[in-house]
Design goal:
Radius of gyration: 22 Å
CATH class of one domain: Alpha Beta
Helix content: 25-40%
Oligomer: single chain
CATH topology of one domain: Rossmann fold
Order of helices and strands: EEEHEEHEHHHEHEHEEHEEHEH
CATH superfamily of one domain: P-loop containing nucleotide triphosphate hydrolases
Number of helices: 10
CATH architecture of one domain: 3-Layer(aba) Sandwich
Strand content: 25-35%
Bound molecules: adenosine-5'-triphosphate, magnesium ion
Shape: globular
Amino acid sequence: MNRSITATEICKSFGARTVLNGIDLDIQKGEIFGLLGPSGAGKTTLIKILTGQIAQDSGTAAINGNDSRKLSGDDRKRFGITMDNFGVYERLSCYDNLKIIAGIYGVGKAEIMNALRKVGLEEAAKTPAGKLSKGMTVRLKLARAFMSDPDVLFLDEPTSGLDPVSAEEIHRMILAEKQRGKTVFLTTHTMTEAEKLCDNIALLSEGRIVEYGRPCEICRRYDHQRRLRIHLTDGNDIEIPHDKDAADMLSELIISGRAETIHTTEPDLETVFMEITGKELSA
Ligand SMILES: Nc1ncnc2c1ncn2[C@@H]1O[C@H](COP(=O)(O)OP(=O)(O)OP(=O)(O)O)[C@@H](O)[C@H]1O
Ligand SMILES: [Mg+2]
């Protein structure tokens, strides 16, 4: 069985507000899946439902084939989570922060040190968590998610508020987990992050998944203009329709050495999302 995370017709309301209104997901093992959507769209709510932290009103969810509403302790060891509301104990060392959770998972010193090594915090094992930089704090939270060497990782906005270098370090760690065959369920407000990391993404808006697929595939779907942009060696840019008539012009520009770069003009994810929802993704 290659399925890692599934959701069928998940609905969830808080009072009169319907947050999720029929969510279907089918995430394969070894995939990095990105859930995108404006603030308040229900991304964190969906992670909480999938991981059994809250119950859906209707529909079914499962991780590794196990119903999210009936997860055993062993089932829970097979996934790791980082979320904003999972804080760190600032006065405790990195090691002791993990030790608390290690008890729950039934893992020991070797696993704690392994997790710290994986996120590059081995040398900070004795440092109080309150003294860590923002990037290091995120890495400590990741170490906690890594500790039971789970098959599936749920990372809720793991790079939120980080500088580009720290975010890049987190990206490397996420990609390393994928290399090891792990499944990653990620939420992000950063489109470049989604484009770079995710095999598939879903755009969540008004309680529904309004687009799904590979990031570049989705962008191509919204390429209404179908044009080519050519940067010429004289410094000018020209745009021509991307049709059969383009062939002659392109060959002439290439043969005469006047074409420096040639690009298609499909929109980026941010633009696609704006078109679909009329809202900015990062709003
Ligand atoms: N326990 C709760 N009680 C009442 N309303 C809630 C609760 N949890 C979430 N909500 C509401 O559900 C909606 C979705 O919230 P959620 O945190 O899932 O959004 P999100 O997509 O993760 O947003 P963000 O990008 O800001 O993290 C919001 O309107 C929020 O106020
Ligand atoms: Mg959230």
